[in-house]
Design goal:
Blueprint (H helix, E strand, L loop, with lengths): L1 E5 L4 E5 L1 H16 L4 E5 L8 E5 L5 E5 L9 H11 L5 E2 L13
Parallel strand pairs: 3-6
Antiparallel strand pairs: 1-2, 1-5, 3-4
Helix pairs in contact: 1-2
């Protein structure tokens, strides 16, 4: 389990390390291009939704608790990047299946 710490008020959101690693790539790619976006995340109490405005001026910390960096799924990153660029903003999507490298 990892944690995304958002803004100077240190709001935090817990995510699985694997998901957080993919979100980090998406956030950093968007912010490196100076592109702000909306990030929709379920609140910690499980009720409703919460939307965060992610912009270059907002401090972010990605805190991973696992001992190893998760491997990345390029198809998932592509899908999340597309979602982040949409009118509704980034909503976490389920990870797509990885293609079978043997083609079977």
């Amino acid at each position: 389990m990892g944690r995304l710490i958002y803004g100077s008020s240190n709001q935090s959101f817990d995510f699985d390390d694997r998901l957080l690693a993919h979100l980090r790539v998406v956030f950093m790619n968007k912010l490196r291009r100076r592109e702000s976006f909306l990030f929709n995340t379920p609140p910690t109490d499980g009720l409703g939704t919460r939307a965060l405005w992610v912009a270059p001026a907002v401090p972010l910390v990605f805190h991973f608790y696992g001992g190893r960096t998760p491997s990345l799924n390029g198809a998932w990153i592509d899908a999340l990047m597309k979602e982040a660029g949409s009118v509704n903003g980034l909503t976490v999507l389920d990870e797509p299946a990885r293609p079978n490298p043997r083609g079977a």
